[in-house]
Specification:
- This protein is α+β, with helices and mostly antiparallel strands.
- It has four helices and 13 strands.
- The strands form two sheets. Strands 1, 2, 3, 4, 5, 6, 7, 8 and 9 form a nine-stranded antiparallel β-sheet that branches. Strands 11-10-12-13 form a four-stranded antiparallel β-sheet.
- The protein starts with 8 loop residues before the first helix and ends with a helix.
- InterPro entries: N_methyl_site, PilW.
- Keywords: Membrane, Transmembrane, Transmembrane helix.
- Pfam families: N_methyl, PilW.
- This is Type IV pilus assembly protein PilW.
Length: 311
């Protein structure tokens, strides 16, 4: 008769122990893999956030002061200028050394940029009058009362405030093909009978700063016409240095803080010598559940291209 034998108790305990050790090891590998994936994903998001933030800043900084035509170079009579003053299209405030009165700001420096919104150009449908323009309608971004606009051509440029439009609802009213814009300036029409080269643009005035978004997270914000818009989440600090051209050779000689630009006898003239800005962003991981990631600091230099290409 054959005798049947199974595993002994000791053998079962050894097998169970080995199995448990293998399961624990596989679990640890899975947890480590998930943590590594989450970290990699968070770092990739930070990198993408930094890229997008610099993309937005670069477009504005490069076009600071761009009018679409004749360049304005007259300086304001007082300092600091209005944030819509295209004669001083780039200026900033330093977090540690300037008094910054900007609602919603959390921390960091502030950067003001003014330029023409050349994505939305309007052309004349008829020669302009001293205080009015007849424009060909566009499907959107038509003039509205109290907005600041710029009338420009290769030989003339002036900014003005829109007093009223006809139709009052803009080009979206009915089947209007032209729109009459009334300005607050009797000198804004400097084109004579020319209807080919003049263009009218909305004037963009952007203020960049670090604030908080709707989720109460730190974010790079931009203010336009009193409305704050989130550029990118996770930016917890903004620091800017300004590249000054001291000898008018179209190259940067030194980088200084905003208060060092403004502290001179003629700050408007000094700001006109800024040819580049050096931006440093501090990005804080907003989805770091483990709390193991440090802030990331990203820096880059942006040229004020509109000044560099001027004769």
């Amino acid at each position: 008769m054959n005798r049947q034998r199974g595993f002994s108790l000791i053998e079962l305990m050894i097998a169970s122990t080995i199995s448990l050790m293998m399961i624990a090891a596989l679990g640890a590998v899975m947890v480590s893999t998930r943590a590594t994936h989450r970290t990699t994903q968070t770092l990739a998001m930070l990198q993408e956030d930094a890229r997008y933030a610099f993309l937005a800043l670069t477009r504005d900084v490069r076009m600071a002061g761009y009018t679409g035509g004749y360049q304005l170079d007259s300086a304001p009579t007082s300092w600091p200028p209005e944030t819509t003053d295209i004669a001083t299209p780039l200026h900033g405030l330093d977090d540690d050394n300037d008094t910054i009165d900007l609602s919603g700001r959390l921390r960091g420096d502030v950067l003001h940029i003014v330029r023409a919104d050349t994505d939305h150009a309007f052309v004349l449908a008829a020669p302009c009058a001293p205080a009015s323009f007849t424009l060909e309608c566009q499907p959107s971004h038509y003039p509205q009362a109290e907005q600041t606009w710029i009338a420009t051509s290769p030989y003339f440029t002036e900014t003005f405030a829109v007093t009223s439009t006809d139709p009052s609802g803009g080009c979206a009213t009915g089947s209007a093909t032209t729109l009459t814009l009334v300005s607050d300036s009797t000198t804004a029409c400097g084109f004579g009978s020319d209807t080919d080269t003049p263009r009218l643009y909305p004037l963009i005035a952007h203020s960049y700063f670090v604030g908080t978004n709707d989720e109460d997270e730190p974010a790079l914000m931009v203010r336009q016409d009193g409305t704050d818009t989130e550029v990118v989440e996770g930016v917890s600090d903004l620091q800017i240095l300004y590249g000054i051209d001291d000898d008018a050779d179209n190259s940067v000689d030194r980088y200084v803080r905003a208060d060092q630009v403004s502290s001179a006898t003629d700050p408007a003239a000094n700001w006109a010598q800024v040819l580049a800005i050096r931006v440093t962003l501090t990005l804080t991981p907003t989805n770091d559940l483990d709390g193991t990631l440090d802030d990331r600091i990203v820096s880059g230099t942006i040229a004020v291209r509109n000044r560099l290409i001027q004769p």
